[in-house]
Fold each of these.
Amino acid sequence: MEPIAYVNGSFVPHSEAKVSVFDRGFLFADGIYEVAAVLDGKLVDNASHLARLERSVGEIQLKLPETLARIEEIQKELVKRNNIESGLVYLEVTRGADTGRDFPFPKADVKSTLVMFTSSKEIIDAPSAKAGVNVITVPDLRWTRRDIKSVALLAQVLAKQAAAAAGCSEAWMIEDGKVTEGGSSSCFIVTRDDVIVTRKNGNEILPGCTRKAVVKLAEERQLRIEERAFTVEEALSAKEAFITSASVFVQGVVAIDGKKVGDGKVGPMTARLREIYVEFAKATAV
Amino acid sequence: MEPIAYVNGSFVPHSEAKVSVFDRGFLFADGIYEVAAVLDGKLVDNASHLARLERSVGEIQLKLPETLARIEEIQKELVKRNNIESGLVYLEVTRGADTGRDFPFPKADVKSTLVMFTSSKEIIDAPSAKAGVNVITVPDLRWTRRDIKSVALLAQVLAKQAAAAAGCSEAWMIEDGKVTEGGSSSCFIVTRDDVIVTRKNGNEILPGCTRKAVVKLAEERQLRIEERAFTVEEALSAKEAFITSASVFVQGVVAIDGKKVGDGKVGPMTARLREIYVEFAKATAV
């Protein structure tokens, strides 16, 4: 059976899931998105994703077409309809479709667009969870408001395509000699002194939901965390490196630009944090 | 009668002009656009727009789904079907719709999306052509590849919305104390010595088609042109300021952030360049 998507109030097969060519998401990247993981048919850390959604739309003065509670209901309904046990729910809100194309916000009677779809994906037992991933580095070309989770993702597309072309699954973006974040993940290293280092939130990076949860879980376990920028050289001489995101949870980085990190294997701290996060995800999924 | 749009090979009424929610234009702003003016039912400076389209798609390795010659045929067909005498033709090419959402480029069998639509607009006798326009200044938040005419336009949306909220029709974007360009236009000043100044092309700005034509036409008339960055202070103490774009041609800027430029009226050089451009546009439209 064809999977079902949600488009502005209707549940429709993927092949019929369409938006107007006048949709401001299509014309202007005037929209916000979120991706939440699904485990055991339940939404992982979804309150955090919805809180970030609310913040992002607020930053660009975009009105949600539904309440957060209703959005979560639709997410759940879609997961159920598509029978997703392990996977992702994508949601996008845009400033709607006016009758023409004009940069400033449309009149208040143009309703925001809400689109959602799901995909099945093995997250817990993904092969890359055990083997780790290789990453490349690329210059960070993005705009200055990376804290807003907008669909203006062309720089990330180019970064992740460069990674794919090099046989890697992620690109670490570099600005002023420091790592900002991955194309679709937050970056961490574990120093020789077992300090977990990740960049501080600000306009320079997206405040990762999984990043936030991992930092909190680590702190609760009295692990040492430092929020600061780091260089690629520092990452290469670190004990471990890893990335976090809603779709990979915690994933070891075993090489950067073809150079081994640590012993070139997923390290014990990364493995432990992954385990802790999976436990949290399962225990709190809704 | 409802206007007609072009979507991937079909001419359809605007209300039926739709793309998949999996279209990479909608999900990732992974697309390029162009806007050409129409005068007397003909395309203005279209070869220049198509050349820029070809360059932009090349920069992001996006394959055009049709030849430039065929694209121009479709533009003309659409202008005819919608009976546009004076107005605009918008065209957007995206990296197509895959079956799911994944950052790297899809497989080669995913065909690029091509969408076009038109709008009627008085360009020659627009009231703002005589009266000039007021602009505000905003920080330039954009990414570092502004020479690519991508649909990742959220920063421009926010800039032009700020302008609209202030009762202005354009926002000049400022970086490192200098004007880069307008939200959807190129910026010029005319100094006390009658030198026409506009920023040099580079990654910092879009190479404007109308900008290019105006510079060439001015040079042919032995007017003095200097391509360099300028500050807002310089613009405020200049004789004249103006903007150029496919949709406004040449338009006087009479105030910046509420402060008068020159005597607060459209200046003689601006009026002359507008006249020269209109003459060129009419003479060369196809």
Note: The domain at 4-120 of chain A is CATH 3.30.470.10 (D-amino Acid Aminotransferase; Chain A, domain 1).
Amino acid sequence: MIKTSGYAAFNSTGPLAPFEFTRREPKPNDILIEIDYCGVCHSDIHQVKNEWGNATFPMVPGHEIVGHVTKIGSNVSKFIVGDLAGVGCLVDSCRTCANCKEGFQQFCENGSVGTYNSLEKDGVTRTYGGYSKCIVVSEDFALKIPTNLDLKTVAPLLCAGITTYSPLRHWGVGPGQKVGVVGLGGLGHMAVKFAHSFGATVTVFSRSISKKEDALRLGASEMAITTNPEKILETHAGKFDFIIDTVSAPHDLNLYLQFLKRDGKMVLVGLPNVPPHIEVGNLIFGRKTLAGSLIGGIPETQEMLDYCGKHNIGCDIELIAPSRINEAFERTLNSDVKYRFVLDMKS
Amino acid sequence: MIKTSGYAAFNSTGPLAPFEFTRREPKPNDILIEIDYCGVCHSDIHQVKNEWGNATFPMVPGHEIVGHVTKIGSNVSKFIVGDLAGVGCLVDSCRTCANCKEGFQQFCENGSVGTYNSLEKDGVTRTYGGYSKCIVVSEDFALKIPTNLDLKTVAPLLCAGITTYSPLRHWGVGPGQKVGVVGLGGLGHMAVKFAHSFGATVTVFSRSISKKEDALRLGASEMAITTNPEKILETHAGKFDFIIDTVSAPHDLNLYLQFLKRDGKMVLVGLPNVPPHIEVGNLIFGRKTLAGSLIGGIPETQEMLDYCGKHNIGCDIELIAPSRINEAFERTLNSDVKYRFVLDMKS
């Protein structure tokens, strides 16, 4: 066993605090990663507060992990010691169902293994995430990291990056298209970067005019303030090919459905805890689509990282010491971060 | 002016009764159709009862019209006197917007002209529908009718047929696919016929076991009773490529979303007057789509009729005299028709 340490939640209401625990020795297909950086995802907060109802403690959050390989198992072929490596939301799956075989491990029919707050396939070993010094993972669920990027800006690509890249690719966003991004946070700012990079014309929908300068800097052509729905409808109704909605807080989806053109598509990547109402006429008139998307499989996550390396895309981040994690949670809840906290696990 | 007669509603609560009115003389691009048959669509009842809030009276309903051409304008090229002709839900549109130019007249950006309870493009002339002896319509909005079909079974194709044909075609339903049809009424029974004809394996979801024999006769492989959601989920969760939901009455869409496979699509063609709740997790987990579809444009309606001629597909109907229209409305409201009333306008 490998002794390590990190930050854990010990119950659903208290702060995170230092925690000592062990990782398994690498098995033949495993790699040991010394973690350099780990992003702070809003879902870490949901999990720690047990807002999804399945929390187990102590819980070491973190699924936006990058670091260096320091040890490899005897059968490892994808990595050598010294390589950069990343881990996202998943560390295993059944590997045999139709979805796994097609590379959609996030939809494993037998249940994928989350990077933390989950059980390994043995059914008993708990998983601990990236708010820690090291992690041991099968090379099949580890990602190759482009060497030309600023490593700390890569960490959040493992969740915020793939969550937005995947639907934009799946629904074929590209040149000549008008794309809306709802919400400019960790996910939204990456959606703007990708959609712009794919050649689309991007509008950011936000309640906060203060983000306009950032929206334009990130690649948007315009910012639309949503506080006056009637006015915004007048300008934008029927204009958009594709809208990606990154907002988890309850909000009216019907407004955005009206922004779509005929055959337009709106995709949700946030999970509101109150089920939204849909005016069915907003789908029927114009043959419109409302869909959902969940992170991405391992092959597409690798594709996204390679794309980011080629096009020099990283996240906009604020680097902090792990000891400030509770402050980072507070500020994330207040949307007071541009646009992702990243823990400096070497500090 | 051409004197004619039909059945009209004179207010939103009373019965339909005989009504005398006039049609315009055919203009150069118009044809005069002596109506043989007109289908009774559930939306005729919504309109007459002013349930969509835009009723004007007297109202002559009817948008599933077939008959014979008895007079043509000087520029008409598609029809000669004696031809069969049909009229569906639309009799005109702006013809210049992007949707019209692409053949999607049902989504005309400047407002299409409904076959009844609408205003012609002159902004003043009211339109009257097919519960009448004749109709005058631009040849551009008249359909050619295959001569090999039993004419009275063709009438409901103009609405019930195209409403189900269009989404099944648009989303590429075909061999090897598992398709669900929710509701076995006027729309549902045509969805079963088309999906089966396109090579899919069809399951009918209904509350009523009494329809099982019919479902199988129409082309379904099985009938699933929806009165016990837990049991039906056990059997059908994650199994369907495509579901077409033809039910207008409020019902839980989340049950059906769970029947879809990864990347499965559910399309609504009914318009519930209570906006449904969507559990967003049912879209996100499995990258599923909820969409809507509205009748079809003129080119696709013609394609559908041609397909029906080639494959000998008509609607299952119950032929009645127009004088029994009020009884037909009552029985339609009670789902007591297999599967569409058609008025015999020659009787």
Note: The mean pLDDT of chain B is 97.
Amino acid sequence: MNIYLDNAATTQVDEKVLEVMLPYFKENYGNPSSTHSHGRKVKAAVEESRKKFADLLGANPSEIFFTSGGTEGDNTALRCLTKKYDIKDVITSCIEHHAVLHTVDELESCSNVNKHFVALNESGMVDYEDLEKALKDAKSSSLVSLMHGNNEVGNLSDIDKIGSLCKEYTAFFHCDAVQTVGHYSIDLSKTHVHSIVGSAHKFHGPKGVGFMYLKKGCDIDPLILGGSQERNRRAGTENIAGIVGMTKALELCIQQMDEHKDHILGLKVRMIKALRERIPGVVFNGCSDDIENSLYTVLNISLPPSEMDNFLLMQLDLNGVSASSGSACASGSEVGSHVIKSIKSCSSSKALRFSFGRYNTKEDIDRTVEVLEKICSEKVIS
Amino acid sequence: MNIYLDNAATTQVDEKVLEVMLPYFKENYGNPSSTHSHGRKVKAAVEESRKKFADLLGANPSEIFFTSGGTEGDNTALRCLTKKYDIKDVITSCIEHHAVLHTVDELESCSNVNKHFVALNESGMVDYEDLEKALKDAKSSSLVSLMHGNNEVGNLSDIDKIGSLCKEYTAFFHCDAVQTVGHYSIDLSKTHVHSIVGSAHKFHGPKGVGFMYLKKGCDIDPLILGGSQERNRRAGTENIAGIVGMTKALELCIQQMDEHKDHILGLKVRMIKALRERIPGVVFNGCSDDIENSLYTVLNISLPPSEMDNFLLMQLDLNGVSASSGSACASGSEVGSHVIKSIKSCSSSKALRFSFGRYNTKEDIDRTVEVLEKICSEKVIS
């Protein structure tokens, strides 16, 4: 099997995560909304998970709502906050995930919301002065939607700074934290944010489950209607195995965060160094090679332009390396990355995203650089 | 552990279902939207599942969309068909699941849709003449939303008849088939229905995954935005293990449908007979004791009124029987069942729903009737 360097698209489920999920596919099969013993047993599992999950993020259990994933979470937070609080101005950036951008577009066309894109610097970092100006200029109730870590180039935003600005100008702050939950320490008791969302499969949990944090006092109507689950915020029978698994996944991530970070950052630094040495003309897109300002899990590069540009991922794949051109969610479409296009300093050559995880090794990196070097010298083994 | 007679709330995952899911929590962990080998492997699994799932329902693979469950499916079909086709009249019934009723209420309040409740006969069966009248009277594009099998009392609708009427009057037909998929033979190549939804955990699949069938030619925009998954109809990384598991669950159900039906119907008939013999004054709510017109999986009864009325489920639970008062989705709320209240012939005493599955035995039934008899004679063992 290929070397897997696409951990920003999805991660391998941790064995310990699967282990805690199994009883909920077997003997503990009740519906948590049922009041009998079969139901109570799983209800307890959901609520214990909620408590543990909240503790791990510095939140209150009543602020955690389980969803089917990050995309549903972004849709719910943005649409339901906008509706409930009659938001008229949404300030976001053009390099957000489509789960945010497409939802904001819909709010613009169907709910008369004004969309404002905050300026980005050459490397795609949020221009905080421009954000402040936009907040000042907003004529009515406004909402800022800015992601924590960019899924394509890895740029990290300072969510404490954004939160403070939002607080100063009484704006709502929604944060897509899909790439950072489980990888960065997030303390929601300190950060001023109204909603954040995450997805289990990005931090070694299962696919099909995520969460939405909704700050105490924020009162939304559900996006998905039809039952009193999740305290009337999200109808539908709970994905118990998923919820229990996601909670275990977050617990494992947080317990070993420093260790994982050291290991993964080491791999990223090793790759940057090797690429600089062995591939003259390599471009690091966004802030990818800026250790402080980018995700330690993501490295986005462009090779020197060549006639191989459109076949790079295929060549990598044929040579045993799974990488991506950017967001997996957009890879079905033939248009290029909206993120790369929006960042001035990005190369015009095809971008390659390598994203690292706890199961990667130095050997994975060395082999990958070797393959890239061969591709560049057109001595491709296929 | 209790005798489990709440299979309409959720069912135990079949061992063979879990078996096919496991590789997608382990080695096959890619994101199906990724183009490399890890991604292609799971993409193939999703598309093979779609093909198999479609075949089992007489549909085309392009008509099947995977969702997070029945509730999301009802929300999507109703809201997106209404929006796309500018539906102005929705004809439904007051005994639909809340996933339908609450969604229709929202369409009424936010999208200027007129809601019309079709008349029901004394037992809660759809009055087809009244449905035809409503279709005739509809002034504009209309949509009929009627469920296949009622989750509380078990009443079965004739979806072929409803489909024919909708065809005659060029109305859209949405059907919540959550209680019948996997339990009844459904051939979508023959039934005139625009959308149906189902949920895996109601037919021995996992929780957190369902499907929406959308007839070829129906073109909706997605409810959940942000990615090109499910051919642009439902954004978000696919729950592969869930999708593979749901497909296996449906396959097993359909392979052994007659055998399961004989067994489960035998249990229901045994319970009806025993209750009639041993509990004078027992009332069968809706069409519950009408074998032809109700789900073979559901029996809804009321015991003769007594001061124990509010403690029946607790008494059953204490005596080792897991049953329910109706919909699990509404059990968190303290208001009584909207279904029981809407059906004239239903007893005013507390309703008890017993719902049977393939793992139940005659002994489960005999023991349950024994407990009910004891409760009625107030000689309750606790």
Note: Chain B touches chain A through 74 residues (CB under 8 Å).
Amino acid sequence: MIIVAGGSGTRMGADLPKQFIELNGKPILMHTLEAMHHFDAEMQLILVLPENQMDFWENLCGKHNWAVPHLLANGGATRFLSVKSGLEHATGELVGVHDGVRPFVAAEMMVRCFAEAERSKAAVPVVPIVQSLRIVHDGGNEAVNRDHYRAVQTPQCFKTAVLREAFDNAKRTDYSDDATVVEANDVAISLVEGDQENIKVTTPFDLQLGQLIIARRTPSN
Amino acid sequence: MIIVAGGSGTRMGADLPKQFIELNGKPILMHTLEAMHHFDAEMQLILVLPENQMDFWENLCGKHNWAVPHLLANGGATRFLSVKSGLEHATGELVGVHDGVRPFVAAEMMVRCFAEAERSKAAVPVVPIVQSLRIVHDGGNEAVNRDHYRAVQTPQCFKTAVLREAFDNAKRTDYSDDATVVEANDVAISLVEGDQENIKVTTPFDLQLGQLIIARRTPSN
């Protein structure tokens, strides 16, 4: 699994990049890697971090006496380049790409995504859109049928060779979503059921929501 | 303001319709009406409830010793019919339609929506889409640019005459969104800035999120 953590913290309004902000006394990124490790202790974990955050991360690991095994890869200027960097280290037949700031990823969802990727080459978890949707354009905006849309989460899972070929063939480096790169290389994307709790922690509100999810999952005794 | 509360509770997995579930010791619907009343004590509040929930609601008001002034209107078989029923009672130049299970509506947002409705006839609050989006169709699915879309909230605000004409002219009764009825009557919809906290409480997860929002807003002394 490639875990991408390129955040600079600007959306969070904090100086600390969001992946390092603590939830329940531990940086978000540690929660994320632990979720992967607990799902499958043999899973190769490739953490992509901006080069200038490497020392900070290693200090954090020491401070928290934290030892989940993982590889480090240098992040690039865009998500695309970061994933490409991580992908150089991937050795398995399948590979997932996961947002570092989605710490609540459930094991069952990872099972669904990898199984479907094995069957069909490329699979992403999605959730229904629960609010009415409008499309905006130069001339105004209009309602669209939300039932025709899905919101995409991570991990986005692929046959490693398929993801690598798509990244090698890509004509742009500004893709914000990995499945879109694969789709641009003429591979269809399968959709699997996501999870409402698999939130991306990017705002102070999300952080409080994250604390709530952790409190729910922690036995109260 | 027409407040639509037609929920039967099925998505919440509870027997109690979701608008009656308690947040911080008080039914969600009371929080919603209080938000309106505190914003403007002169605002006409028209609460649309299924006929078979009227007695239950009035008992709840007694039990909670709750006396925010409001009119009651009988709900219909669809949201469209419920709003149409409430609209018969509307007397002001402007009218809003709000989901009964959005108790965290902020005063500033109501100001924005009504001001824009006065200027342009019809205004809805929207928030950006923060997740990647895919469109699904018979042949598969594909990525769309989330920057072109907005998620719609309530209150949706209108010149009363404009909303009434649209409802009178409507050819269908299955609209799930009021602005769409107005748009079908050839009136352009203006978009105003919504609020991430203005959530619709429809699942147990939302309910816990709601408790979090209330805790944030309540001074801890």
Note: Residues 2-126+152-217 of chain B form a domain with the Spore Coat Polysaccharide Biosynthesis Protein SpsA; Chain A fold (CATH 3.90.550.10).
